[in-house]
Amino acid sequence: MQRSNRHRPPERMIALAIQPAPAASDPRAPFGFGAFIITARGRNEASFECHMHGYGAGYPPHAMCERLQGLFTPETLALIYHQAEDFGSQARRSRDPSRAEIMKSIPRSGLRTAQLAAIPHHILKHAGGVGGLQLSSRYSTPLGRLGYLGAEAQAVWVYWLFRRCTPSVRRQLLSSYQAWQVIENARRKVIA
């Protein structure tokens, strides 16, 4: 019997949370992204980086795509968060960005693969809780959500860990991630 490939993480992965730019026919609104980059280091260890950037209403949409382009390498696996409908939340559908709007924001040159992760907000919140992250409300405005995009990207990665990795790999990577969080929090306190 062949062993299942419940995954060792790829060499380089970017978990993205995107607030896409409004369409030309829509009113102006802020937009931006959170990108959580995971790079494999040895067996079941990784290094982490988090990038967030917001753009004001009326800013040219291509600026976000250009900034994202610099984060990708040809072997990057992109995991892109798409807010799935929570059970019984039909009223919000018209305000949620479509998959096509999100994919327009992703650079396409040389990507190993890009996967959309359609995750209901309450499940993403649970993954964020496992990672010790605070996320925006399901009903946040685009401006209110911008400050949480980095945490959303990290929560998407935590969700992916639980869906795709064995418990032993997951434990090791979560330990590395928690150590990184402690270092990042200490660095922010020194800067402040």
Question: In words, what does this structure look like?
Answer:
This protein has 192 residues and is α/β, with parallel strands linked by helices. The chain has one domain (12-83, 96-191): Nucleotidyltransferase, domain 5. Helix content is 36%, strand content 23%. The chain contains 6 helices and 5 strands, in the order E-E-E-H-E-H-E-H-H-H-H. The chain has a 5-stranded mixed β-sheet with strand order 3-2-1-4-5. Strand 2 and strand 3 form a beta hairpin. The protein is globular. Mean pLDDT is 83; it is low at 1-5 and 88-95.
Structural class: alpha/beta
- Oligomeric description of these chains: single chain
* Count of discrete structural domains: 1
Low-confidence stretches: 1-5, 88-95
State the CATH class. Answer: Alpha Beta
* Count of beta strands: 5
Q: Rough shape?
A: globular
Gap between N and C termini, in Å? 55 Å
CATH architecture: 2-Layer Sandwich
In the CATH hierarchy, the third-tier topology is known as Nucleotidyltransferase, domain 5
Sheet with most strands: strand arrangement:
3-2-1-4-5
